[in-house]
Specification:
It is built from two helices and no strands. The chain is an all-alpha fold.
């Protein structure tokens, strides 16, 4: 390929390129706006959001394990059905 020719990417006008709102039908636009808001939130608070979710998941899993251990080791002798 010659260095004097422009590449294909340089020939494409990308100044007015938008997102999916160009192809989403009008009745689905309220739903698309919600998805855009979620994406903006994730871009802004992504790392903090993921860290908080990981901590909450760890707490729930640890509490579930402690509850299971309590039922298995302690409450097993007291529960009769």
């Amino acid at each position: 390929m010659s260095s004097t020719k422009d590449s294909t990417e340089d020939q494409v006008d990308t100044s007015n390129v938008g997102g999916l709102e160009e192809i989403i039908p009008e009745p689905l636009m309220p739903l698309w706006r919600r998805i855009e808001l979620i994406q903006q939130f994730r871009e802004t608070h992504g790392d903090t959001y993921v860290t908080v979710l990981e901590v909450l998941t760890a707490i729930v899993l640890a509490a579930g394990y402690v509850w299971w251990a309590y039922i298995y080791f302690i409450a097993d002798n007291t529960v009769t059905i």
